[in-house]
Amino acid sequence: MPEQPNEDSAHVLVVVENLPMGIDHRVRKQVNDLLASGYRVSVVTRRDPANARYRDLPGMTVLEYPAPREPRGKAGYAREYGVSLGWAAVLSLAARLRGRVDVVQFCQPPDIYFPLAWMLRGLGMKVVIEQRDLMPELYAARYGHASPAIESLLRWCERRTQRVAHHTLCMNETFCRRATEAGAAPEQLTIVGNGPVLSRVSAASASPALRRQHKFLCCWIGVMARQDRVDLLLRGIAHIVHDLGRTDCGFAILGDGECFEQARETTARLDLEPWVDLPGWLPEEKVFSYLATADLGLDTSLQGEISPVKILEYMAFGLPFVAFDVAETRVAGLGASVLLTPGDVESYARHVVALLDDAGLRFELGETGRERVRADLAWERQSTAYLGVMRRLSQRSPRHANPRARAAGSGARLRASKVAGAGPCRRCRYGTACPRSGRASRPRTPSAEPGLGRRRRPSRRGRARPR
After folding, report:
1. Which of 132, 238, 382, 434 could pair covalently with 430 via S-S, beta carbons 3.0-4.6 A apart?
2. CB atoms inside a 10 Å sphere around CB 136
3. Main-chain phi, psi angles of 356, to 5 degrees
């Protein structure tokens, strides 16, 4: 039975900038598990209607700020990050004024929160950095390259971030290596993947109507940012339909983002509207219904350092997928997918068609992926590591415990010290055990007896200065 948070429960503050918490699947999974484990949780996030379901949950506080405008260009992102950092500072301090906060978790990128992290660390919070992306690589994936000055700045931010962190949550081994290069100690790193919740996967049901009278259905899911390369996906679909003549397959591209309107325009320009469905952002239940119906998953990312969430969800549903052969996609999907030379759109299209025509291979790849998720990659397996980190960091010292527990602990130490013949407190020489400092007493020695210890420093008044 889930524990119920109360005023003495440990308190975790989560700061997320990239998405509203109501549609950030990873934050939602973390928050749900923290609440079920008896923590109090506050989340600093941009305002969105999807946050409504969390506003009235017991033990939950949603601290929202006005959603910034969708950025256009590098200056727009700089402005968005600056505004979000300012709101995060104000709302984090508001959370602290309401009561004690034990742990603050920053969901990054962007790697801009280290000044705020130092301030909150000074107020007694333990700092957890959740590294979801690597800014230099992300910048290069979006804009083609990073100048030496930009590269140096982004690496500097990584080092400042790791310096302030008590612990860092990494998505994969690549992120762990980068965190170590930035100064993190290996014992301060924990890999926490982002697999789906198996109970939600099991609850999903197929809907033949989603095929729209096509024999096959292929799915792509995610946020349509520039680095996700939906343009390559649409070029591949155009090759399948127009050049290879496969008109019996429908393609559902689920999600939205900065490239959503561009994807619609490209779909119309390439004359793909009868085969491509772009419904926009959908709730998880509807997305999972698509995956339960589909025959094949698709991914066209070229980022080698990322473990795409979409491929874990494909695997959970027993869907084989076609993707480009980049490092972390290979680590997660080897044996459950067909991996191809990065950027080769025509080869990608041919292998999609070949896999659709080979039901036996699809079944074999799908079952391999399904078992891997069940055994290791599902959120139920990753959550144990996440909660373990929070449990260790939220353990309070005696001076942070509630007054009743502190008084009881002081009495127990005093009784134990009398039995053991312990000496006075190191800090204030209070009797045989100090209930204020909570520190272990040292054994009684002659030098610790009154009058035999360290001599009192004589007053400077009237004392000759030594030559």
Report:
1. 434
2. 19
3. -60, -35
